[in-house]
Amino acid sequence: MANYGTIPTGPAMKLEYISEAKERLKEGLGTLRPWRQIIELHSFGFPRSFAETTARVTRNLGYFRMNYMMILLVILFLSLLWHPISLIVFIVMMAVWLFLYFLRDEPLIIFGRLVTDRVVLIVLLVLTIGVLLLTHATLNIVVSLLIGVFVILIHAALRKTNDLPVEVGKKCGSVEIFTSKCSR
């Protein structure tokens, strides 16, 4: 009875925290589409018009958003392997990304105001790029971001969307990519 009203700090609490973190990680990465679905060869083809191209890019960016972000981050990570300070900063920023964007299941409220996903995404992108540019790896970062965006846009334009499932009641258009987590 001596422990009544105290906060448990023993091994049981640590295990509970770890299992809760694992569950949140699984939920946060739940919108990650199967990689096999991204690289199915029969799903690729050239679009017939500019309108079809923009429709494909819009739909694919919304549907494969998490996968595309992972591709961009991996390309950026690989470009920083020869800049250890930048790599350390990048890893710290990825931890911030995990907690503030990927794994957050509750609305973010700062000073009593609701912060939308779009604002969090834009602030994290600008902050990550800005902090990395301060590490004097500017050319590597800019080139890797350009390569990543190029790869993503080429994939999004060539990947047919007719075999992607339609999510009932959820729209993943160009505006919703930055305003909501449409796949949750």
Secondary structure blueprint with pairings:
Elements: H1 11-28, H2 35-38, H3 50-63, H4 65-79, H5 84-102, E1 108-110, E2 113-115, H6 117-133, H7 138-158, H8 176-179
Helix pairs in contact: 3-7, 4-7, 5-6
Overall description:
- It is a single chain.
- Helix content is 61%, strand content 3%.
- With 184 residues, it is mostly helical.
- The chain is globular.
- The protein starts with 10 loop residues before the first helix and ends in a 5-residue tail after the last helix.
Short description:
The chain is mainly α and 184 residues long. The chain has helices at residues 11-28, 35-38, 50-63, 65-79, 84-102, 117-133, 138-158, 176-179, and strands at 108-110, 113-115.
Helix content: 55-70%
The string of secondary-structure elements, in order, is HHHHHEEHHH
Gyration radius, to the nearest Å? 20 Å
Overall pLDDT, averaged? 78
Strand content: under 5%
Secondary-structure class = mainly alpha
